[in-house]
Amino acid sequence: MTKAPADMRIEPLAAARFGCRVVFASDDIGRIVETCRRESARMLDAFYAARGLMVIAGLEGIRRQPRALVELSELFGEEVENYRETLTSARFFHDSVEQILVLSNAPPCNHPPPPRAVGDDGRLLLQFPAQANWHTDQSYRRPPPDVTLLLALELPPPGQGQTLFADCIAAFETLGPCMRARLEELEAIHAPSWIGRSRAAVENGEPVLDLLPHQRPQRQPILRRHPVSGQTSLYLCEEKQLDYVDGPVVGLSTGPAGEGAELIRRLLAHATQPDHTYAHCWHRGDLVIADNRNLLHCATWYDAERYTRLMWRTTVMGNPGGEYAGEEKSWIPADGSPIMAGMEHA
Ligand SMILES: [Fe+2]
Questions:
Q1: CA atoms of 95 and 48, how far apart (whole Å)
Q2: What does the alpha-carbon distance between residue 37 and residue 68 come to, in Å, rounded to a whole number?
């Protein structure tokens, strides 16, 4: 017998200028997926009206039904990515579902939290550069993934391991006209953090890794027009995920002390000011859906010696916008070589 769909309501996210929350009357995962499918148009309208940030609580049951995370992800785009076919180290793979990326400090993932960023009063600092981990997921691929879904399964205590979000449409709209005009044609060069091109790697004189053509850093426009809303957004990344050898900005002087680096720092600080940001304090079973096309996000510190944090992530692609019209995936090798060849240390 088919179960009846779960009742659903959508409300604004408290304590943020953007984002929405979806609340279901049931915690039955099958019923929730069925309701989401039936109400997908309403959910997507709410998602885009809320600048691409949606929180759904109470989905801890997905741990026993991991395919349900893929089914929910399918609502947000035409392709839920198979991580074995992207530039992703095998230590992040889920053991049975190819579309799920595992993020945890526990082995075999061993993904560490970023440094602690709190003020003298102990309060969490949100703004770059005090909080330095702001990024969009896997922006070193073209086209980059549209939407990220992040499910919390094990968490440190409250006050640690939050995820921050910044509304980069608001960030664009609060720039002055001269800066907007300056950014119009500019591109940043996005690069994996493990190839010796990050700001810190260049400052420390680390060797630059030889890359196969499909692994090379990718240019991305600093301004993107959202394919659904038509709104213009900043598209940026932390200094760990940009190329400070040949960039970070095409046409501006290169390196950590160059004009491009100065512009990136200025834009990141602007985009992550308090008026544009939201800090999500996780509860087990929360699913956060975030639009990479117009949001930055940032994990925060937690005590990884004492606690385990376990998140499952999917990314969805297929509608990156006019800037990427007709493009092939940059990360697929033309010669059939392994995607991560030579990057096994990542
Ligand atoms: Fe991320």
A1: 32
A2: 12
Location of structure tokens 């859906």? 289
CA of 119 to the centre of ligand 1 (A): 23
Give the SS3 label for residue 301: coil
Q: Using CA atoms, how far apart are residues 210 and 24, in angstroms rounded to an integer?
A: 50
Please give the distance, rounded to the nearest whole angstrom, from the Cα atom of residue 190 to the centre of ligand 1.
14
Ligand 1 center–CA 149 separation, angstroms: 10
- In CATH, which of 3.60.130.10, 2.40.50.140, 3.60.150.10, 3.90.550.10 is domain 8-318? 3.60.130.10
- 188 C-alpha vs ligand 1 centroid, how far in Å? 18
- Residue 178 CA, ligand 1 centroid: distance in Å: 31
Distance 195 CA to ligand 1 centre (A): 18
> Residue 297 Cα, ligand 1 centroid: separation in angstroms?
6
What is the 29 CA–ligand 1 centroid distance (Å)?
A: 25
**Per-residue pLDDT tens for 169-207?**
999 999 999 999 999 999 999 999 999 999 999 999 999
Q: Hey, which bits of the chain come out as E strands?
A: 8-12, 20-24, 53-56, 79-80, 101-104, 147-154, 163-167, 187-190, 218-221, 223-225, 232-234, 277-280, 287-291, 295-299, 310-317
Tell me how far the alpha carbon of residue 6 lies from the centroid of ligand 1, in angstroms. 30
Measure the CA–CA gap between 52 and 19, rounded to whole angstroms: 7
Q: What are phi and psi of 102, to 5 degrees?
A: -100, 125
Distance (angstroms) between ligand 1 centre and the Cα of 177 equals 30
Residues 6+ apart with CB under 8 A from 333: 212, 213, 214, 339, 341
Q: How far apart are CA 74 and CA 317, in angstroms?
A: 10
Domain ranges (residues) in the chain: 8-318
Read off the pLDDT of residues 118-128 as tens digits, 9 standing for 90 and up: 999 989 999 99
